[in-house]
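If you are new to this repository, start here. Below is one unmodified record pulled from the training split, so you can see the exact layout before writing a loader.
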Amino acid sequence: MADALLSKAQDLLEGQIDFAGQKKAEFLSTTVLIATGLIAFVIGIIQQDIHLTLWIGLGGTAIAFFMIVPPWPAYNEDPQRWLPASTAAPGVSIEVDGKKVN
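And here is the target side for that same chain:
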């Protein structure tokens, strides 16, 4: 039971996302940070308050952090299937730094 729980926790914390998920996360973070920056700038100009502007920017950064950093399942909808490891064909040897590698 503890092994199953540990395995689930490890899967959650590993942070595996696919290539489409990386693109989605990058677009989302850029959009959130730009929108927050513009909103903070406009409110700061209207209110003439740099402190408020910085707090709005910090809040937007925190929102972007919690939307992007955890490995949400939406970022791993199409994982790549990797080929299994195989041994080299018979009679083929690889040499690295003068040593043969199997």
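Two things worth knowing about this chain: The longest strand covers residues 94-96. The beta strands are 94-96, 99-101.
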